[in-house]
């Protein structure tokens, strides 16, 4: 029995404990940023949030009190050294992950009309006075989601289930919970569900293969910068493409599908090669 399996929690199934613990660790921290940006100016809110995220990552990775749970926190956060090879392939996989998600969204909205109103609802940055500060808010919003959600879902939720039941069940559970927690968003249309679920699976695989949350955080943050800036707030532009039901199977559509396939292939290669060599 580990130091976390004591008292009332020891009488609950480990999978349930991992789900609840991951949600608490990830989602409570993720909601600090919305409170800050709605009450403070963007630069002040961003500065406070970056400090908070640093302390949060430091603590969740095993530092600070309580010392008796430090080993468990380090394990759940997948905290450990990374080789140069892992950095190379991990960064490639992270970039390919973000590209895959955005390419999948583009292809989706070539197959069905883009529901602009649903995507923009709840992402009004008009209260932020300048374009530069809106970009700052997008980047910090993405960083907050990347750090907190990965620590929660791929760390404190997935890792304990991996330890007990193996990686595939753990990845499946964390991906499903990741999808469910986003279903309250206005953009979470039925057609978006496979993309969100697929993103959860990809991040779960990357966390498992790399034995680290670093690349998941980088990939998630990069994905969310694009989501916030382009798809949700439109400060980076608007989606101009029309569905193929209107345009026909034009060459652009084939290019978009090819980009999606290529990005996914690069992710698979990166995730396959990021695994640390066995000790000794």
Task: Give short descriptive properties of this protein.
280 residues, mainly alpha, 0% strand
Describe the structure.
With 280 residues, this protein is mainly alpha-helical. The protein has one domain (7-273). The protein is built from 12 helices and no strands. The protein has helices at residues 14-30, 32-39, 42-60, 70-76, 84-111, 116-120, 131-165, 167-181, 193-210, 214-232, 244-247, 251-273. The longest helix is centred in the middle third of the chain and has 35 residues, at 131-165. It is globular and about 60 Å long.
The N- to C-terminal Cα distance equals 28 Å
The main β sheet shows up as: none
Strand content: under 5%
Q: How confident is the prediction overall: mean pLDDT?
A: 94
Number of strands: 0
- CA radius of gyration is 19 Å
| Protein structure class | mainly alpha
Number of helices: 12
Q: Provide the low-confidence segments as ranges.
A: none
Helix content: over 70%
Shape: globular
Give the number of domains. 1
Task: Provide the succession of SSEs.
Answer: HHHHHHHHHHHH
């Amino acid at each position: 029995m580990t130091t976390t399996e004591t008292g009332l929690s020891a009488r609950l199934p480990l999978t349930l404990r991992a789900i609840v613990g991951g949600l608490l660790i990830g989602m409570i921290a993720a909601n600090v940023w919305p409170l800050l940006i709605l009450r403070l100016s963007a630069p002040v809110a961003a500065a406070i949030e970056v400090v908070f995220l640093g302390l949060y990552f430091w603590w969740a990775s095993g530092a600070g009190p309580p010392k008796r749970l430090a080993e468990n926190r380090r394990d759940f956060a997948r905290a450990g050294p990374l080789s140069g090879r892992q950095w190379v392939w991990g960064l490639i996989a992270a970039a390919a992950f973000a590209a895959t998600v955005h390419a999948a969204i583009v292809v989706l909205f070539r197959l069905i009309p883009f529901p602009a109103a649903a995507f923009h609802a709840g992402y009004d940055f008009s209260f932020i006075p300048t374009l530069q500060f809106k970009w700052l808010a997008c980047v910090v919003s993405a960083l907050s989601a990347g750090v907190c959600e990965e620590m929660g879902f791929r760390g404190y939720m997935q890792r304990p289930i991996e330890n007990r039941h193996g990686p595939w069940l753990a990845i499946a559970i964390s991906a499903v919970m990741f999808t469910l927690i986003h279903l309250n968003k206005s953009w979470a249309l039925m057609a978006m569900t496979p993309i969100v679920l697929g993103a959860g699976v990809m991040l779960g695989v990357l966390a498992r293969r790399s034995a680290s949350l670093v690349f998941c955080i980088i990939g998630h943050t990069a994905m969310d910068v694009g989501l916030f800036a382009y798809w949700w707030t439109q400060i980076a532009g608007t989606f101009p493409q029309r569905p193929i039901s209107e345009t026909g199977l034009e060459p652009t559509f084939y290019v978009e599908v090819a980009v999606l396939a290529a990005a996914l292939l690069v992710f698979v290669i990166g995730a396959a090669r990021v695994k640390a060599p066995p000790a000794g």
